[in-house]
Amino acid sequence: MSPARKIKTLKTKIIIAGAPGAGKSFIARAADTCIPSQEIGVSIGKISETIEDTSREITLMTWAITEGRPRESTHLKHAQAAIVVCDLNKPETVVQTPEWANRILNYAGDIPIFFAANNVNQGSRDTYRLLRRVANKYNSACFPILAKDRESARDLLGIIAWELSDYLESEGQEELVSW
Length: 179
What we know:
The chain has a 7-stranded mixed sheet with strand order 2-3-4-1-5-6-7. It has one domain (8-170): P-loop containing nucleotide triphosphate hydrolases (Rossmann fold), CATH 3.40.50.300. It has 6 helices and 7 strands, in the order E-H-E-E-E-H-E-H-H-E-H-E-H. By secondary structure, it is α/β, with parallel strands linked by helices. The protein has helices at residues 24-29, 72-76, 91-95, 97-108, 125-137, 150-170, and strands at residues 8-18, 33-37, 42-51, 56-65, 81-87, 113-118, 142-144. The longest helix has 21 residues, at 150-170.
């Protein structure tokens, strides 16, 4: 009988930011649980993913900023990653993605930033190409999601969990956040 594998649990806080109406809350609601908090202007979600073929499980605590500018001391504190969301039907939301990314990096430090392109099934190819160029400037990737398709948002969170698991493992980080 082989010994049971010990599962290492990684916990991380992810900020979901972007222009109003870009789809931030939609992504947060794809988590297993999601609690909107009017008091601090966020929707807080939680999802746990077991990374196949490894001894790691990662728990993502998503903070979707739902009201205007992030309150740096509340929203960005202890963030280990961020998702900047835009809506391909609204090119102005794509143009604003560098501003959101810079704001996050200025306060949270050098954390991984992922870019999510909402409404990829309806937006223009040129707008998507623009977002891919922005993502390249941040040494990141652009992940397409379908409007109102919960599974595509869950897939996005699953992919990010996988990427973050590898990143955090390489950085030697384990227990990151107390909630």
